[in-house]
Amino acid sequence: MGLIGIADSPMLLVFVGSEWTEQDIPLPDLESRGALVTKQFSFLEVKLNNKTTGIIATVVLCGCPGLFLCLFGAILAIGRGTFSGPFSNGKIHPVIGLSLMCLAIILIAILIVVGFFSLRDKPVARNNEPIPPAS
Fold this sequence. Notes:
Elements: E1 2-6, E2 11-16, E3 19-24, H1 27-32, E4 35-40, E5 43-48, H2 50-77, E6 82-84, E7 89-91, H3 94-119
């Protein structure tokens, strides 16, 4: 989704899919939500920050499935899992629950690592310091 609008107007033209629509989006609201706002050639261009998009994708693709797998794995691990089919009925083996919990731990660990590296402040390189002489 790309957002482009005239800088003097409070309305923005929003291109979604294959059509343009007008929306009333105040600029301070966009900047407070982490959007990058730039002005060029009397047009306003708004782009979502890649860091924000990456964090949202990681939460949706790793965090939510990890929590659900952990819940269902715990239910299966304590022996509460059963199945019923057209030809047979039975219990699901607790080892399947333990393997789901291991997969859940991996997904949640990915979420934590991506969040840590995305949200931390990178150290600033100091180029003003002189290089020490070689010994």
